[in-house]
Amino acid sequence: PEPTNLTQEELLSELERSMSYRILDGNVGYLQIDHIPGQEVLSRLGGFLVAHVWRQLLGTSALVLDLRQCTGGHVSSIPYLISYLHPGGTVLHVDTIYNRPSNTTTELWTLPQVLGERYSAEKDVVVLTSGHTRGVAEDIVYILKQMGRAIVVGERTGGSALDLQKLRIGNSDFFLTLPVSRSLGPLGGGSQTWEGSGVLPYVGTPAEQALEKALAILTLRRALPQIIQRLEKALQDYYTLVGRVPALLHLLANMDFSAVVSEEDLVAKLNADLQAVSEDPRLLVRIIKHRQHSPESGASERQGTSPVPEGEAAQRALVDSEFQVEVLPGNVGYLRFDKFADVSVLEVL
Asked: Are residues 20 and 156 in the same domain?
């Protein structure tokens, strides 16, 4: 039935089936939308949604918008959803929609004012997608991606039509489903339209693993300020080329990390930018993975020693594991070892 024929209670029941939210660990807001309601529903229930859903998410440190099962929606709702993630003070032309039956073109702009508050532009937003993400949901994903407002994680979207209409063929029992509207741009389409091809995520991963991947990305991004602070202190305390430290500190303070979604991204960006400013290829940032080890092995590593077994056979086996000795063609000797042993160990061996 059309929304105009539904009571307030029936509309709320429909929304409960298509929308849910919760607060995840790390104060991450999670909003799942499986069907995007139209402008009429939002105007009738906007106050309820702001008070009972949106207001609970405003205090979170980051937001995950789950559109993995969102297979439909209304074009009229696009400006509403985008506006809550767009900074206030300016309006943005997000899309132009052409409708074939009416032969009309409609421009979509963000709203100058919204009911309630907008989500802070300083907070990260991650959108989850799958092959089931279709139509209006795809347009929203594409717009947020082009705005640079969201990190898209998951699978390529379905590449469905923006708006579909089912038509009966004559008086038969056959029907034809036709795309009747299309996105023209500027942000929603144009020559790079998503229709037919889908929207590619920033981080591709199976849909069922997208939430876990998104939370890992947000954990890394939440740790960025502390990582940069420790890096600045290390440069100030230890870097030999003291004259270049101020320029490096200025670089770190103004570096844009909006595209960083993994440890590898972070390391690549830091190394490229730090080496360019310092003109020093020896200045390197690396990822050190934590290894699980016993207290005994940890103690021996800290002391730079390893236990020496008793017995010649056991000691020979230890030497063979640490040193590689060969005589190469041409009577060339070859000796390889990958770390220096403590002198007390060498004396025993």
From this structure: yes
**What Å distances lie between residue 131 and 89, 160, 243, CA to CA?**
35, 10, 53
Which tokens is 68 given? Answer: 């993995």
What does pTM read for this prediction?
A: 0.77
| 267/262 Cα distance (integer angstroms) | 9
pLDDT averaged over 10-residue windows placed end to end, the chain, 349 residues: 65 80 94 88 81 90 96 88 90 91 93 92 95 93 92 94 89 93 71 80 94 95 94 95 95 90 93 95 87 50 60 84 91 91 81
Determine the structural domain holding residue 228 and report its residue range: 219-278
Residue 43: C-alpha distances to residues 37, 81, 139 (Å): 10, 13, 21
Scan for tokens 């007390």, then name that residue.
344
Query: β-pairing, 151-154 with 203-204?
Result: parallel
Please tell me whether residues 169 and 254 are part of one structural domain: no
Question: What are the helix (H) ranges across 149-290?
Answer: 210-238, 245-253, 263-278
Q: What is the CATH number of the domain that holds 172?
A: 3.90.226.10
How many angstroms separate the CA atoms of 130 and 135, rounded?
12
